[in-house]
Amino acid sequence: MSVTAPQPESQSTSDLPEVNNGPEANSGPEVNKGNIEEIRPIPRITIQAFCENETVRQTLELSAGDRRMARAHVAVQMGGIPGAVEYYGAAPTPNLIIVESSLKGESLISELGRLASVCDGDTKVIVIGHLNDILMYRELIGHGVSEYLVSPVSMADIMTAISSIFSESENGVLGRMIAFMGAKGGCGSSTICHNVAWAISSTFQNEVVLADLDLPFGTANINLDQDPTLGIADAVFSPDRVDDILLDRLLAKCAEHLSLLAAPSSLERTYDFDANAFTQVLEAAQRGAPCVIVDVPHQWNAWTRQVLAAADDIVITAMPELANLRNAKNLIDTIGDIRPNDSKPKLIMNQVGMPKRPEIGVNEFASALEVEPLAVIPFEPALFGTAANNGQMISEADATAPVSDQIISIAQSLTGRAEPKVEKKSALDFLRKLKRKKSDKSG
Questions:
Q1: Which domain covers residue 132, as residue numbers?
Q2: Is the domain of 147 the same as that of 184?
Q3: Is 8 inside any structural domain?
Q4: Which of 60-74, 325-339, 363-377 has the weakest average pLDDT?
Q5: Closest of 187, 329, 213, 200 to residue 254, by C-alpha
């Protein structure tokens, strides 16, 4: 951090526009989340904060506990700028310092100068102030401050500021991770997951990595007609070697825009993992692709919980019967506790309308979960069975089937894409055809 000497103010601030920090800038003192849904995960950095106000401290601590900050190491304490100056007089500085101060003008610049004298040159600083003034904002930015936020701040304000500062860092930008999990074994979660990954890659031409985490019984390689010699197990059992080069070797190319991290699907060894066993390989996949689709097996242990906690979106597939309802309810409630700042998981109802099977009505099922289904997929054993036996996706087996359109609709919803990419016919081609038709008629 470098803060230059303060310069005298050359104009009044009374007629200048105010700094706009979003709707939270004028809200009350209570801690609020703000709109955090689209904020990307914060990279592996060290953050230390020094606050003056209890509400700011609470907001920072809640932000530190959010899943988007899971990779960062955050410490929050009171003391403001004087506390930071004293602390760093005998301690190394982190990647980012957040300080709150009620000072303004030259007094604030002077205190920041004291802080700069004990900071490393590459340390970033965010100042949380109490004066909403555009001139002071510009002056602070000109003196080397990375961002100035006006209190009261929301969690979204803080995480957006951090994300924007470190978005260009080596490990900054991560692709979106979508995790699929079944409410019960055999409900078809893996099949839906693989087909959605295929739809995103083929329909929207997005680079997609599909990761099959069911190491003993995974089916992604079968469904995609692949037989790779290497896969995700090679990364999980050698975490110290995981990098972009190793990942490229492990990925099996399934289509132009779809790559697979296949499960070995063998029982030669047992697969007992700790909570962060898949963290490194999934982060490497996110650095290499804008979309990572994760097929999570129907298990509940430390590592499945961690994968779900880290995902940007979670999709639960369920069949309309009682055990699925109970399990889906437990999953949604528990995931809500793990991810209190995120929306509820998406719900896909699958195998609806199976002959002679008593079913819970879709509306009743969804009402009990308080979740609107993303899609309701009918029981189609011939279509799904043919595709599975031939190593095909649903759209390959029958592109005209209504289920194929539903898969594309799910892909649209999860990626926020309004419509698939299609080649547009030029107006010139249309005019040529129109002239040709007129010529044929006149002839």
A1: 23-29+41-165
A2: no
A3: no
A4: 60-74
A5: 200
